[in-house]
Design brief:
alpha/beta, N-utilizing Substance Protein B Homolog, Chain A, Rossmann fold, 2 domains, four-stranded antiparallel sheet, 17 helices, binds S-adenosylmethionine
Amino acid sequence: MARPSRPAPPAAPAGIAPRRAALALLSAVIGEGRTLAEAMPAALSALDPADRARAQRLATQTLRDLGRADRLLAPSLTRMPPLAVRNILRLGAVELAHGAASHGVVNDLVEIAGRGKRTRPLKGLVNAVLRKIAPEAEAAWIDLPPQRLPKWLRGPLVEAWGRAEIARIEAVHGAVPPLDLTLREPGGPLAASLGGEELPTGSLRLVDAGQVSALPGYGTGGFWVQDAAAALPARLLAPRAGERVIDLCAAPGGKTLQLAAAGARVTALDLSEARLGRLRENLARTGLEAEVIAGDALIHEGRYDAVLLDAPCSATGTIRRHPDLPFARDGAGISELIALQARMIDHALTLLPPGGRMVFCTCSLIPDEGEVQVEEALARHPGLEVVPPGADWVDPAWRSSEGGLRILPSHWADRGGIDGFYMALLRKPG
Ligand SMILES: C[S@@+](CC[C@H](N)C(=O)[O-])C[C@H]1O[C@@H](n2cnc3c(N)ncnc32)[C@H](O)[C@@H]1O
């Protein structure tokens, strides 16, 4: 006799799984100081691709808006609840402020609070606070100031760029950045089918692009994702067809692809075998060619016409795309990075013939990783020159006094911002 089948348990509401995963990401970043990239594999592994994307989006948005969320919540809290509860409230506040349906947000987050041992006792608080802020969250949000940079970074940056510029940078950090693409053939038919705005520097900018792999031209390698600022160092180097160029810190390979697409004979070197795996995937997808070497830029030997040195740095220029960075870092290790960059510049020069050229760049907002690094290199190497770029894509606001280009996220704010970067074209004495 067939056994009566058990009734299936009621399905959990669709929003629970991605919201729980988003909270796991928030606790890894805010509570444990890990980056989203480090935390994502474990936190998202059980989810389907759509929920994975939603969880990542929710966590990223909450980190971007943490300061505003705390301000919105503060009047409703007489005491500071434990971090796990605070993160539930923050996620709720951010979702409500961005127009999510309040019953879904509140019900799911109350349910999630009820499932956790540490959060269960405060389930009632979660319910009461979220219901209280729900009606006004969207309207109140507009007047709240954006998330501030953490103290370890804000102090030096205010000193370098001034309070007003830092406020503008923080405003840009508070907005969802557009998607920038580098096209293999700029201005070709693919640009028209992708739509978007062609930037003066040649990148194509899309707003609300959706899933990148679903865009036309992805499968055939017609473009790669690369912030508009990150696309400039290779343009500054201006490789010619057939030139031997080494990309010294190459992975995951955005600049290698640009150099190869320009027809240069490219060597892509990086210390990280794992990151080189992504570079190889990018070469395979685009059908572009480069010699790939797992190695140390401090000891690699050879002779090249030109060098691109995109040195490891604090990455503080990329906060608008990586809002986890201020939480996952505390400023430790920056002086070691600065010393490493100087050693890399010195060694990179040995790879060039007299008169050879090199672009040094970092995605940092800290002058010690940019302008100061180049000034000190000039002092160490008599005859080394900075060549100020004459290209028509250079925005005059980017020119810095020693001849390099300084890009701040607040530049092009009306277009959606741009990552912070520093770059300089150096010429070895002849
Ligand atoms: C800013 S990222 C490079 C991004 C890359 N140029 C691109 O456009 O996709 C810096 C890279 O330096 C690499 N790196 C760090 N120390 C290195 C070393 N001693 N030699 C070579 N690569 C190194 C890291 O693994 C990392 O991939």
